[in-house]
Amino acid sequence: MDAQSRGRAEEIDPADQWVLNPRTGNYELRLDRSAAQQPSVATPRRPSSARTGAPGAPAAPKAPKAPSPGVPGPRRGDGPPGRRGGRPRKGGGGGGRRKKILVVTGGTLAFLLVGASVGAYLYYDHLNNNLNVTDVGDAGTGGFKKDQPINILVIGTDKRSGAGNEGYGDAESVGHADTTILFHVSKDRSNATALSIPRDLITNIPACPTKQPDGSTKTVPGEKGTRFNVSLGQEGRDPGCTMRTVKEITGITVDNFMMVDFNAVKVLSTAVGGVPICLAKAVDDKDSKLKLDAGEHRLQGEQALAFVRTRHSFGNHGDLDRIKTQQQFLGSMMREMKSKETLTSPKKFFSLAEAATKSLTVDSGIGSIDKLTNLAGELKDMDLKNITFTTLPVLDNPAEPEDKKATVVVDRRLADPLLKMIQGDVSLTEVEKKEQAAKDAADAEAKGKADALLQGNRAPAGDVRVDVFNGGGPGGAASTTVTWLQNSKGVNKSSNRGNAPAKVDTTQLEYAPNQADQARALADLMGLPGTALKMGSADAAPKTPMKLTLGADFKGAGVSLTAPQKAPEDIQRVEADKAICAK
Questions:
Q1: Region at 98 (left for phi over 0; alpha for psi -120 to 50; beta for the rest)
Q2: How big is the CA angle at 390 (ends 242 and 327), to the nearest 5 degrees?
Q3: Which of 69, 256, 347, 509 sits in a 20 to 30 Å window from 92, CA-based?
């Protein structure tokens, strides 16, 4: 039970009661029962800028000691862990008089991603109330799967919401996708790729069903040849529209989204005690209000926000160089949150949990503390050196005059192999040789089986029989593939069977043991990896066709599905463990 409900708010700060249990190695919240028990009373939360200096920070009747400026303090009057507003649980009886011990392991925090926030540490029920949850329908998968890669879309908006943000961004903005990162976590959870998508990218935005306040669904019409950032906010588009647009651009299905505004950078950088950054030169940007000398700094609050917003201080003074600055900041934030100083500080954990959940809008698939904690558990053991930041390769828009270049288009020469690596779950990070050797050893048996499927004789193209289904590829994919096979490759015994009974993420070729030579031939013609070949247990009758189901990874007839094993040399990338000076 917390100090407020026990009548001892002047003596005990809950954040001070986290102590290390030497027997278990876990931090525990221990509160004595020596004071007289007072009845629990539901107390509404009220912001208190006087106590914390942070927007929306909870109030306390009296603070035993002054907190650091701008650091959110622990909540009081909200009841103990497992309660909302101090209300007793049903069937609680007299259990409230017993000493409460809440054990929380450091592993549940994993890491928090700022401007990109991943957050879950405490199991307090009241943290669920901090979250904003949006229903995006079928824009995503509804939730990640433990045995599959995870794709989270992190969106930073330019909406001027929150106290103190009136002077930022566009005064008329409805909240566009100002900063967008597709965070891909590998199937084995050993590595991740954070792909930034430029806001000024010219793309097509698909039609988007959006949930209305009255529970109805309104479809916002699609738009061709427009800036990516209007996939959110414009015409009432919700984050699900941005998820659909990202899939249109990358071919990667997004599982869930997380969205933050200006406040997230301010409160999280403050809660962690500041983010270390390095400047190769002095900066004085009148637009973002960033003024710093060359060298190392620790930024929090308004300064941190100015750093990630500045467009005129580094590189070519454009959005692509601002993306690099943001990636450097995020990498430093992640290093700080996984540092010993943070992991061993219960107070910082408490502040981070409050700040992260209050700054976050998520979809219903991860719209609870339990679900976010499960997600954090998937990421907790990942080494930062195996997390790579990169940017979708782009070119200046050729439709614009040379002296008025303001937008960009996808550079397919570099983007296609990069996206295939992400789709194929291939790491961009150069991991240590011993780690790679261990991974190779673990994968050797499965890889050997897949490669073995492609060994042996190939049937002539004219002998290959196959029924083609569209199970998630582009519209008309089955028809165009059959036309391509017949007219360009001589596979005359191929048939278009329309849509598959169910959608699949990856393309699959199902065949019988006595059709192995046909399967190898088709795999060669279409660039199918060994993992796409699924052999049945019994031989097929003569003239029985194989079954090819085109999945969400299918980009078009003649486009190989075999992912490159090495990223193009010319792409921009940096690992999260590396500290780089902005210049």
A1: beta
A2: 85
A3: 347
